[in-house]
Amino acid sequence: TDKYAVFGNPIKQSKSPVIHAAFAEQCEQDLQYRAVRVELDAFERSVKSFFDGGGCGLNVTVPFKQRAFELADKCSIRAQRAGAVNTLLLAEDGSLLGDNTDGVGLVRDMVANLGWSLQGQRILILGAGGAVRGVLEPLLREKPRSLTIVNRTADKARELATEFGELGAIDGGGYELLADREFDLVINATSASLQGEMPDLPGSLLTARSCCYDMVYGAEPTVFMRWAALNTAWAVADGLGMLVEQAAESFYLWRKVRPATGPVINQLRNSLA
Ligand code: ATR
């Protein structure tokens, strides 16, 4: 049985073992996948001993994604852009490869599962933390008309816009940037969501055709999703599909098999209720 795991701290909340067990069963893959709480000072040596002990692949979650990026011998372009790694695997020559599947997970959920097109659209992202950095390159690959990042700390949004500027039309700043502007797609990536808070937004930034996506999820609609519905967004979704899609991409990197994600998203949705 091939061994996989996710390393994080905390880790109790992780759905990854359930997701990968479902993928393995569906694709008839003989593997085990465990969630491991790693002490803050033990990440690097835990990764090493996992692979030395015959482990086949790792997911890495908060707060270790940047350290996984530093640790990997070689990283994919998307992981380099993200400055963060959520998937580790061994190359043929035994070196440690780092990749980041978060952004592609977000894009696939929006495009393939929800049927939202990104091409030519005006995209707004709320927040400028690690979660945003991780998804910018795959989003810009979809060729939106524009991508605007707003953040409480405006400088962080401006810095991201500068750093990713060569990949597409991207601007950034504080929330005051939103006055008198409209967007086709609004993505909430602030951690405020987790505390049931959200930034103050003018309802005028949505049109009758706008889509709203919250990168977090829960048993109930988030505050941002309720705001979107109240302001008559065309479509509203949470981040459960992104979670399953990023896992599917990791599974593919490890096993070279692509699981069907729809049944697993439904299974998780039912288990939240
Ligand atoms: P993550 O990995 O989830 O991105 P992070 O790097 O800590 O976590 O980033 C959290 C993001 O949520 C930041 O953009 C943060 O804004 P600041 O850069 O100004 O701190 C944003 N955020 C957190 N709480 C917020 C709040 N109450 N209102 C608005 N934005 C908030």
Automatic annotation (TrEMBL):
Q: Which residues form the SDH C-terminal domain?
A: 239-269
Reading the lineage from the top rank, the first entry is Bacteria
Any one biological process term the GO annotation gives: amino acid biosynthetic process
In this chain the Quinate/shikimate 5-dehydrogenase/glutamyl-tRNA reductase domain maps to 117-193
Annotated pathway: Metabolic intermediate biosynthesis; chorismate biosynthesis; chorismate from D-erythrose 4-phosphate and phosphoenolpyruvate: step 4/7
Family designation: Belongs to the shikimate dehydrogenase family.
State what protein this is by name.
Shikimate dehydrogenase (NADP(+))
- Species per Swiss-Prot/TrEMBL record: Parahaliea maris
